[in-house]
Amino acid sequence: MQVTETLSEGLKHEFKISVPASDLDAKADAKLVDLKDKVRLNGFRPGKVPVGHLKKVYGRSVMAETIDQTIRDTNTQLFSERGFRLATEPKITMPTEQAEVEELLSGKTDLTYTVAIEVVPAIALADFKTFEVEKPVVDVTESDVDEAIKRIADSNRTFAAKGEGAKAASGDRVTINFKGTINGEAFEGGTGEGIQVLIGSNTFIPGFEEQLTGIGANESRTLKVSFPKNYMNDKLAGQPAEFETTATLIEAPQDLAIDDEFAKTLGLESLDKLKEAARERLAAEFATATRQRVKRALLDRLDEAHRFDAPPSLVDEEFNLMWNSVKAEMASAGKTFADENTTEDAAKEEYRKIADRRVRLGLVLSEIGEKNKITVTDDEVGRAVIERARQMPGREKEVWDYYRNNAQALAQLRAPIYEDKVVDFILELAKVTEKKVSREELYKDDEAEKSAA
């Protein structure tokens, strides 16, 4: 075998490889000898078919298998000897001319091909004991508990009809019948009867609820609104519409006593038990937010400590996935880059930086996991599948079957589990200091990101 490196440019390499025809022929003959005891041909007793006859019958297919196996074995040996870790599948270029292919399959010429690869760079891992990470800690206050219970009470509030002649106000519930038109023509889904609208809930088309303020029972109005540009129905998105609306019932929210009786309507023994449940839920929410903040800070630290050139093809792949998603979301929302105070070129540059960071961090986390023998067990993946199934009551079997029959979906479940285990490994080595913060401070970064989005 003869190997010549024809390209060495950064993480990209290309080799020209030549394997003598005599080596191929010897390997093919060995396969034929092995085949001799397995095939059944008319006129020959089992195991007595001459190899020469087998070569006439199966020679071309056996040689094709031999060539394929030789290429795999040769590439594996080449990459192993040079310590290459491939970023992507190798690109192999074979002879394509019919005459060359015939010569090769008949064993009359050497196998010559090229293999182009892109490799993962050597990654020098940082000393994680030098990492310092701040962990924000929030105590659940009585005020937090009271606010949580008030939200629960608001969502369970009852309504009662207002007196004769009463008008609807913000916070009231109005039952309506309506018929919508666009340019004077009715449209699918534009009519409704007995629909309850809570004024101020912002659950209907912008402007719809506000125009019900002041309406009385059995009163009719024409509500003029425009469907949002990102409305789920493309035919209606951005369209001005009119709704001939009649209110049939005006109801006001009733005072709700937050006491033991209220707690019992929620299936709890007492108000104290309700407060205890609310406190536990808030503590879990704060713990999740804290974990996200700590993980984000640690990933930032890993990014700073590991600067290297990421494989371009992996960055391109990650960028394309992100960019296609961004374009689809913007098209759905009817937005342009100008609406986001940027340009397409500037946005592409920003997302390419994000793609580069994701790829590098992915490689770093993989290197840490590999060197420290961090793995994800089948039991851990199984528990993740069960958790997903629990999130879809009534469809548990459907979810279970989906993951059982979809290796890629299972891999998507395994990836975040692996990442979290590597993060936990680093945090055990790093210096983590706790800092008491307010609830507002804990969620500050998340709110800032939402505002910028």
Automatic annotation (TrEMBL):
InterPro entries: PPIase_dom_sf (IPR046357), PPIase_FKBP_dom (IPR001179), Trig_fac (IPR005215), Trigger_fac_C (IPR008880), Trigger_fac_C_sf (IPR037041), Trigger_fac_ribosome-bd_bac (IPR008881), Trigger_fac_ribosome-bd_sf (IPR036611), Trigger_fact/SurA_dom_sf (IPR027304). Residues 171-259 form the PPIase FKBP-type domain. It is an enzyme of class 5 (isomerase). Its EC number is 5.2.1.8. GO terms for molecular function: peptidyl-prolyl cis-trans isomerase activity; protein folding chaperone; ribosome binding. One of its GO terms (cellular component) is cytoplasm. It is found in: Cytoplasm. PROSITE patterns: FKBP_PPIASE (PS50059). GO terms for biological process: 'de novo' cotranslational protein folding; cell division; protein transport; protein unfolding. It catalyses: [protein]-peptidylproline (omega=180) = [protein]-peptidylproline (omega=0). Keywords: Cell cycle, Cell division, Chaperone, Cytoplasm, Isomerase, Rotamase. The keyword Cell cycle applies. The keyword Chaperone applies. Pfam families: FKBP_C, Trigger_C, Trigger_N. Consists of 3 domains; the N-terminus binds the ribosome, the middle domain has PPIase activity, while the C-terminus has intrinsic chaperone activity on its own. Involved in protein export. Acts as a chaperone by maintaining the newly synthesized protein in an open conformation. Functions as a peptidyl-prolyl cis-trans isomerase. Belongs to the FKBP-type PPIase family. Tig subfamily. HAMAP family: Trigger_factor_Tig (MF_00303). This is Trigger factor. It comes from Bradyrhizobium zhanjiangense.
